[in-house]
Amino acid sequence: MGRKWNNIKDKKAAKDANTSRIYAKFGREIYVAAKQGEPDPEANQTLKFVLERAKTYNVPRHIIDRAIEKAKGGSEENYDELRYEGFGPNGSMVIVDALTNNVNRTASEVRAAFGKNGGNMGVSGSVSYMFDKTAVIGVEGKTADDVLELLMEADIDVRDILEEEDSIIVYAEPDQFHAVQEAFKNAGVSEFTVAELTMLAQNDVTLPEDAQAQFEKMIDALEDLEDVQQVYHNVDLGQ
Question: In this protein, which residues make up the domain named TACO1/YebC-like N-terminal (predicted)?
């Protein structure tokens, strides 16, 4: 099941560090979560989850505070949560999640990013049935046996526990995300290398070199869109 989470995350972080784009995306996501519920993460599980993710990307505190204060201030700015599904080169599959205040603009931009890079948008449900929503939580400084023992003591069943690079990665049901984190925190863990609710492909595919280059260009084009928050796919991009 492993997707080399640290490699993927490092690649994205290096790319995003040049533009601070990731901070803007998190700012929007934090604002929406805080506006839809209480601005207190202890009373708002959605906000708590977003803030946990933000920590793993080293989002500055002032970005977080500004987004929450904006929500507290009663801003009338509203966003729609949208999901697009499509296909890339050689039948590869892609899911795109967006937050937008202009649905027509976002749909047009996503469609163009697919179309200009050898892909095409599909209808709702054309791809997502081949993915499973999954909690992915990573820690350093522990062995797989350590993690298995502490989760068993907490009476938590998970899908898988794998060693990937220097981390132990736990794959669990989405509703177990906070329970797994609490088990780690109770065992003295305060930092997580990965803390995501993601869409994992049931089967990864490997593309020929030329198709992979085109696919990566398409993914970059989608991730570059201001309204796009997350892009999931079923292609093994290796290292």
Answer: 3-74
The secondary element (H helix, E strand) that includes residue 162 is: strand 160-164
- Identify which of 30, 49, 2, 39 has the alpha carbon closest to the alpha carbon of residue 170: 2
Using alpha carbons, list the distances in angstroms from residue 125 to 9, 85, 174, 208.
Answer: 27, 7, 20, 26
Spell out where 55-107 has E strands: 80-87, 93-100
- For the chain, give the mean pLDDT: 89
- Can you state the percent helix, strand and coil of the chain, rounding each to 5? 45, 25, 30
The CATH number of domain 131-201 is 3.30.457.10: no
Per the CB < 8 A criterion, the answer to whether 203 and 234 are in contact is yes
- ∠ CA 152-157-158, nearest 5°, is 115
CATH number of 5-72: 1.10.10.200
Greatest C-alpha distance within the chain? 51
Q: What is the pLDDT of residues 172-231, one digit of tens each?
A: 999 999 999 999 999 999 889 889 999 999 999 999 999 999 999 999 999 999 999 999
The DSSP 8-state label assigned to residue 235 in this structure reads B
How far are the Cα atoms of 41, 58, 60, 115 from residue 33, in angstroms, in the given order?
Answer: 9, 19, 17, 31
pTM: 0.88
Residue 37: what residue type? Answer: G
